[in-house]
Amino acid sequence: MNPFATIEKENAHPKGANSPAFSESLLAAYYPHVHGASVTLSSVFDLLQHDKGAKAKETQQEVKSVSRQLIDKIKRRDKLGQDWLDKQYPHLPFDPRRPTLFVFTELLRALASEKGLAFTPNDGIDLLHASVPTAYGDFVLLDKSWTRRVRDLKMPGHLLYAFAEPELDSFLDAFEECEIVPDL
Questions:
Q1: Domain boundaries, given as residue ranges, for the chain
Q2: Which of 20, 74, 79, 182 is 20 to 30 Å from 110 at the Cα level?
């Protein structure tokens, strides 16, 4: 979920290392609970809810506050002209070895450029939630506005299926039809 940590990993990524999108801290936190047990989506959700979501709620409030300040700052500065936005967050070419910086920057630019956007605290969480999965995933399920923003990204050679909640049936159909080919 943390595009900043993923961007750092991408910049220092040695050949053959784990994917920069892989969270070693998540594995370290949950490995003792799943070692020797079957890891299912349900068991992961159970572990995430172990503390009734207290840690997640605390982190969410911090992320909402920080991201709100960032977007407000970008929108205030953007009123000074597109020049500022281009200098602070320039368009970057898509680099398949470092996709997160591209995705995060383009989504920030989209938010800053949207006229009349009523940025909500949840948009900050959504920005983070959308960035790394969009950079590394094949399928993402987002709300309507974030699905539109993600679909507008141009990532040559990166096929991404983005769906909104009303398209859940289409999402499931596409997912079931997808042939998974393991990396060799």
A1: 3-9+53-177
A2: 20
